[in-house]
Amino acid sequence: MARKTKAEAQKTRQLLIEAAIEQFAARGVASTTLTDIADAASLTRGAVYWHFSSKAEIFNAIWQEQCPLREIIRGLLSQGEEDKPLFILRELFVTALQYIARDCRQRTLLQILYHKCEFEPGMISEYEIRERIGFNYENVRQILQRCIATGAISAQINIDTALIVFHGFFCGLIKNWLMSPERLDLYQQAPALVDNILSTLPPAPAPHRFYNAAS
C-alpha cells in the first residue's frame, strides 16, 4: 500500500510540473499563480503545497528534472564515422535542431526560457539552465580538437572563439524561430543552417606541392 501511495504522489507531482510548464508557456512565469497551476492540473492549492512550497520551487524542479538535450539525442546519432570528427559535429548540431523542431515539449520549455521567463530570487538562473539542458561545450571542444588533429580544420583556430560563435548562432536561431516558427521550417532547414555555421571554421591549409622547372 505504501508503495502505491508513493507512486501516486510521484504521479501527482509530475502532473503539477506538466501543468506548470503549460501555464508558464501560456501566461509567462511572472503572471502564473499557484492557483492557475492547481486549476490546470485539476487539483487543489493544498495539493500543490504538499509537493512544492512556492512557484519558484516548481520552476526549479522543471529544469532540474529535465534530461539534457545532449542525452536525449544520443540515441538518435549514428555510431560510426569516429574518424570523421567534423561529420560528427555536423550530425550533433543537425540532430539537435531537428529534435527541437519536432518535439512539442522541448519547444515549450525553450519558449519559456527565451520568451516567457522573468527570473526572480529563488529561481535557478538562466546560465544554470543552459548549462544543465544545453550542449556539453566541453564535448564540442574535444570534437574541434579532433578536427584539428585529423586535419579537418586549421590548427590556427581559436576554439574558445568558435564556441562563442556557435553559442550565439544557435541561441539566436532558436530564439527567433520560436517567435515566428511559421517563417522557417527548422526541421527541413537544419542541415543547411548547420552547414553555414560550420563554414566559418577555417579549413586546414592544402599541402604544399613542389614542381620541377619542366612542369
UniProtKB/TrEMBL annotation:
<keyword id="KW-0804">Transcription</keyword>
<feature type="domain" description="HTH tetR-type">
    <location>
        <begin position="10"/>
        <end position="70"/>
    </location>
</feature>
<dbReference type="InterPro" id="IPR013572">
    <property type="entry name" value="Tscrpt_reg_MAATS_C"/>
</dbReference>
<feature type="DNA-binding region" description="H-T-H motif">
    <location>
        <begin position="33"/>
        <end position="52"/>
    </location>
</feature>
<protein>
    <submittedName>
        <fullName>AcrEF/envCD operon transcriptional regulator</fullName>
    </submittedName>
</protein>
<keyword id="KW-0678">Repressor</keyword>
<dbReference type="Pfam" id="PF08361">
    <property type="entry name" value="TetR_C_2"/>
</dbReference>
<dbReference type="InterPro" id="IPR023772">
    <property type="entry name" value="DNA-bd_HTH_TetR-type_CS"/>
</dbReference>
<keyword id="KW-0805">Transcription regulation</keyword>
<dbReference type="InterPro" id="IPR036271">
    <property type="entry name" value="Tet_transcr_reg_TetR-rel_C_sf"/>
</dbReference>
<dbReference type="InterPro" id="IPR009057">
    <property type="entry name" value="Homeodomain-like_sf"/>
</dbReference>
<dbReference type="InterPro" id="IPR001647">
    <property type="entry name" value="HTH_TetR"/>
</dbReference>
<dbReference type="Pfam" id="PF00440">
    <property type="entry name" value="TetR_N"/>
</dbReference>
<dbReference type="InterPro" id="IPR050109">
    <property type="entry name" value="HTH-type_TetR-like_transc_reg"/>
</dbReference>
<keyword id="KW-0238">DNA-binding</keyword>
